[in-house]
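User: Show me an example of a complex going from sequences to structure tokens.

Assistant: Sure. Here are the input components:
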Amino acid sequence: AQSVTQPDIHITVSEGASLELRCNYSYGATPYLFWYVQSPGQGLQLLLKYFSGDTLVQGIKGFEAEFKRSQSSFNLRKPSVHWSDAAEYFCAVGGNNNDMRFGAGTRLTVKP
Amino acid sequence: ETGVTQTPRHLVMGMTNKKSLKCEQHLGHNAMYWYKQSAKKPLELMFVYSLEERVENNSVPSRFSPECPNSSHLFLHLHTLQPEDSALYLCASSQDGAIYGYTFGSGTRLTVV
């Protein structure tokens, strides 16, 4: 069965520092991978997605993620974090069916 | 309006009340979902409707009753809830499964007193 693990529950970075959020997945076939962001009291917003092709994908708000099949990972990165990036981030894996699995989320705090 | 709209944004109800959550999508998608998001727990998939037919019910208690009258609207009818049902209820829609990702509404914050 497909599953997603986000090892870090909470991460704190300083504004302007680089960011990497980890995601590991388990899926029987080629996965469709996603990163979502959720601000307090809001729904989830899609940041970026990977289907196939180039393993480095670009998303909104300056985020990118790299698919590494050998490591079953899809880590999210940003070179320079802004205070407005403070939120909860969810990694997800899905396929052709209506069954997208979400990780437990990583809460990002940004220090001034 | 565009995207996925959920109403109400906030709801407080007693354990003996009956209320309904509404979700509307303006994206022409063919699948809709209800998720429950509780503090410190992963997103829980409750119901899936594809082409207006329920395709999944993840062992959700019968006090939650979904309804999908057409491809644009999804309801979650609530009755005799428990305090542990207090959570953020999120609606989402998609086209052709999870291939392109889901579009989420802003959620309904439900408090059961």
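The lines above are the inputs; the final block is the predicted structure for all two components together. Chain A touches chain B through 24 residues (CB under 8 Å).
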